[in-house]
Amino acid sequence: MASSLALWAQLLLLVLGPVASASPVAVDSAQQALQPPEPQFRPRKLNGKFLHITDFHPDPFYKVHSSTKSGIACHRRTGVAGTYGAETTRCDSPFALVNATFDWLAENIKDDIDFVVWTGDSARHDSDEKHPRTAAEVLDTNQMMADKFIETFSSDQQSLDVPVIPTLGNNDFLPHNIFYPGPNKWTRKFSEIWHRFIPEVQRHSFTHGGWFWVEVIPDQLAVFSLNTMYFFDRNAGVDGCANPSEPGYEHMDWLRVQLQLLRERGMKAILIGHVPPARTSGKQNWDETCWQKYTLWMRKYRDVVIGSIYGHMNIDHFLLQDTKKIDITLGAGELSARDALEEGTEFSTLSREDYLQELREEWSDLPGSALKPLIGSGAGAAEADASGKKRKKKKDKYTKIGGEYAERYALSLVSPSIVPNYFPTVRVIEYNITGLEDAALWTDSFDGAEPAILDLDNWEDEEEDSSEDQLQELKRHIGAEGKKGKNKKKGKKGKGKKPKKPKDPNFVVPKDPPKGSTPGPAYYPQPFTFTGYTQYFANLTYINNDISAPPDLAESRWRDRDHSDEEPKHSALKPREFKFEVEYSTFDDEVYKLEDMTVMSYLKLAYKMSLEEDPDKGKDKGKGKALEEEDEPGAADDEDEDVADVESQKKKKKKVKNQIWLHFLRNAFVRTVPEDELRKMA
Questions:
Q1: I want to staple 119 with a disulfide (CB 3.0 to 4.6 A). Which of 25, 54, 199, 579 is the partner?
Q2: How many angstroms separate the CA atoms of 308 and 273, rounded?
Q3: Where is the composition biased (Basic residues) (predicted)?
Q4: Is the peptide bond before 183 cis (omega within 30 degrees of 0)?
């Protein structure tokens, strides 16, 4: 504990030292060092729930009532930066938001979950030239975040009550996005920071490459922390997953071997990472060779993998990986170019809208002949027998989607963030624990020994990249840029013929699930299947209480956007009580109507959103207020309103024909985009 306290003191010195005038600790009581909650002990049981939380981006320089303008980053001048953050801006999170979030989790979530997945980006963006990021600051904020998880999810400040599984984000090191092959100084430092989270038997794997896994339910369920930095298309320090000398290749090989081991042990797996495998016609997050292998692994280990969970993009959405697009013959030099997806402060609402529209276009190519008859049916394409075995009846009808359980596709879930690019958000996912009531529970094996204190004074002297290394990296980067330019797709058919077998003679194609086996939990409801989730958000516009709402709209409902040029309505801070509230739940969402979180459920949802008109229009009358019945801003309530105005309102409503897609967009931006703008997007 002494080392932990030393690190807290070190951060205060960092903030209060040479930049005292800009320090939020010096000028703002709400922006203070992170404080642990009071410990409480309660007996533990398996709940069938887990927490996903991502992208905190804590900022030690955040100043309340500072300017939210780009480049100032809520660090100085006067503006409407709120006590708990500046929603819908490019500013990062104040410590007040981090503290309040953990306090709320301790009071409302802690005792109801089995484990926590924390998908990276626990340092601020480098968005203020007057306060450039340093290695010491990045490591300190990550250490503080690790301490907060330990303090919040422990009863006695010694043993964790539940496992916490972290993963590296692209802002958790310097320079951001560039992560070199391991072992490197960052994997070594994070091995120390996360020593409470990484099992002893996994320490070598993590130090070597930044990846590991945890048995969150012993002998039953494992969570894999992937180092997506080695797959990330914007990481110029590596080059994909095709070359055996690349860490991405090694990472994929490690994942294949570990998933095979779990199959042999009869276990299931959840995969987590920071950067999701987003891939549309014009944009992508991962190097194509990594996407190809990952999608192949998802196909081959569909009996093992329950689902994949990511952060990074700050918007609420999901991805369907089509295994029909797998081409294991692709070499690194034969790939068509796509633009890399931007993230964080660089990823505007407009570019996100373009990305979501491209996703919808991809979904419009889903096999309608197989999916159209299923709209309105249950979670699966057909009933299974009592044992859950696949039935051969009507097999041909579902061939285009990979059989009765849509095994052609794999699903990835992407959650919105804590950093208030929109509103701060957390997600609690529930999974089936039928028959697991007597399962062994995870226990913390921490022996009380603390790792060596981080030697921050000598950090800058740890130059692991020699001049020769830098020269080779520069050549690699130039070569990669040239490759992208030369191999742009000119048409659908591409260039030349593809070879008939993989380029790499050592490439191992995993075996399919055993013949006749039950579909995996991602495809057929059974123990460990994700059943649904509840998403919580904090309406900072209302909580901060710094901006006046329009007179015709209640403050509790007002969520507008750009206020960078405004002054706060109070000279003194008058925030309301901080709390998260339910944004929506898949268990009772009358628009999504998800039976569960199987691939088939999401495939049907994607198909319905791709249609020009809402396929559910007019159905389920009396089950609650339908989305198309919601009042539009400015809609008249007077029964004596002029007939022409009524007709005008009707025409406005007819402009958006697919209300499911509109609902998806509303959720994607965590209800921060005004309704009229949403309708323009839709």
A1: 54
A2: 8
A3: 485-501
A4: yes
